[in-house]
C-alpha cells in the first residue's frame, strides 16, 4: 500500500527542477526541494514521537515551511490539525484537550503561552516561525532528505479541521486521504489545471480553501503558486501578469475592484478567477466582468465536505449561483421538517453525498449521526434550490452562522461570552450586510437594570478570549430583544432593523 494522498501528488509530480512556490520574500521552492524538505520534516515528526494516526496540531504563520509541514504530516501517516493564527490561548486549550495531539507546532512568539497547555495533555511542542526558523526547522535540518512514506489507505485520516457547531462547541471534521484526493482530482479536471498554471495563493492555509482547494489542486496538477504571506490587493495586481489563476473569498474581489489598476490589460494572461467560502454578490460578479472581461467562477463547499458544486469552466457561469454538483457528488434539496426530497425550484435543505464527504466529527458519534441521514446524505445546514437549468442556488442558512470575510463566526459562542458579563441581561449576535466582509458581526445587548456597561467594556472583556475576527464590529444597546410568541429571539427582525448600519463603509 502506498500513501494514498501523497502518493497521488507524487505520481503527478513534474521534473524536480520545476517550481512549486515563489514567495513574496523572494524565495523559490522547487518540487525537488519539496520532496527533500518534507522528508526532513517527516523524520523530525517521527523523532518527536509522532506515530501513524497521531494528531499534529499546528498554529503557525503562513510560510513555505508551514505548507511543507502539512505534507510531512501526510508522509508520516499523521493527522494534520491546522489552527487559525487568530485563535486565543483559551480557544487553543479547547482544541488541544479535544484532539489530544502528540505534537504541537507553534510560532516561537507563542511558545510561553502554549507550553503549559501542551504540558497538561502531555504533548511535545516545537516551534516554526514565519521565516522558517525555530526548533522544528533546526531538528529537520539534521535529517535525511529521503523518507519512506508511511502507507495510508483511502479511508485513513489525513486531517482534522475544527468547525464550530450551533451549540458554540467546535467539532473536529475528520477528513480522509480519499476525501482530499478525490476532491483535488475533480477540481483539477473541472477547472482545467495543468503543469503550466501559476496560482496566486493569498489565502490562509489553516482552512479548507487555502490548504485543500488551493494547495492540493496545485500539487495534483504539478503546477506553481505565488505563495503570499497575506492578501494585499496592490501586490495581487502586480502578480497577475505572471499568473494564470486566482482563488479567493468574495472580500478579495471586492477589495481588488477598489484598485484603480484593475483592468482587462492586467488580467489578460489570467485564465480563471475562482470565488468561494461565502456568497459572491451578483453586483461583484458583474463589476468584475465589466472591469476585467472575466466571469468569476463561483463554487460552493464546506469544511466537512470539501467542494460540492462549481459553476462550469466552459459554459455559462451564472452570477448568484454556485453551479452544478461536481462529478461524483450527489446533491438534493429536502424539506427541513420531513427530510422528503423537494421538487425542482423549491427551497429546502441542501444535502450532499460523495467521496468528498467527511468521515464524521472527532469523538462525537452522536453529533455525526444527527447530521447524516441513514442513506449517507450529509445535512449541510445551507438552504437552497436547484433551478430549471440545474444550477444550485444558496438562498440562506438553516444554521445560525455568520460568514465574515470568509471566516465562520457562530453567534452562540459570542453571545455566551457577552451574557456572562456583569451588567448584561442578554444579547443577540447577528450578521449584518457589510460591504467589505460580506457580513459584519453585530451584537445587540440588553443591559441589566442600573448597569452602565459600554461597548468598550464588552470589547475589553472578550479581547483575550475570542479570536479578533469574531469580535463585534458594532455593539447596539436596546431595552428588550424582539421575541415571537414562543419566546424565541427574532433575529430576522433585528437583521432587518439594522440592515443599513454598515452601508457605505469601506472596511
Ligand atoms: C481580519 N479581520 C477581520 C477579518 N479578517 N474581521 C472580520 N472578518 C474577517 N474575515 C480584522 C482583524 O482582526 C483586524 O482588526 C482588521 O480586520 C484588519 O486585519 P488584517 O489582518 O489586516 O485583515 P486582512 O488581511 O485585511 O484580512 C481580511 C481577509 C482575511 C478577507 C483577507 O479575513 C482572509 O484571508 N479571509 C479568508 C478566510 C478563509 O480562508 N476562509 C475559507 C474558509 S474554508 P483590527 O480591529 O485589529 O483592525 C470554507 C470552505 C469553502 O469556508 O467553501 O471554502
Ligand atoms: P466552513 O464551515 O468554514 O467550511 O464554511 C462552509 C459554509 O460556507 C457553507 O456551509 C456555506 O454556508 C458557506 N459557503 C461556502 N461557499 C459558498 C458560496 N459560494 N456561496 C454561499 N455560501 C458559501
TrEMBL record:
**Highest taxon listed in the record's lineage:** Bacteria
Provide this UniProt record's keywords sorted from A to Z.
Ligase
Could you tell me which InterPro entries the record lists for this protein?
AMP-bd_C (IPR025110), AMP-bd_C_sf (IPR045851), AMP-binding_CS (IPR020845), AMP-dep_synth/lig_dom (IPR000873), ANL_N_sf (IPR042099)
**Catalytic activity reported:** 3-(methylsulfanyl)propanoate + ATP + CoA = 3-(methylsulfanyl)propanoyl-CoA + AMP + diphosphate
Looking at the record, the residues that make up the AMP-binding enzyme C-terminal domain are 413-488
Start and end of every AMP-dependent synthetase/ligase domain? 24-362
The Gene Ontology biological process annotation of the record reads: fatty acid metabolic process
Q: Which Pfam families match?
A: AMP-binding, AMP-binding_C
Q: Name one GO molecular function term.
A: medium-chain fatty acid-CoA ligase activity
EC id: 6.2.1.44
* PROSITE patterns (alphabetical): AMP_BINDING
| Family membership noted in the UniProt record | Belongs to the ATP-dependent AMP-binding enzyme family.
Protein name, per record? 3-methylmercaptopropionyl-CoA ligase
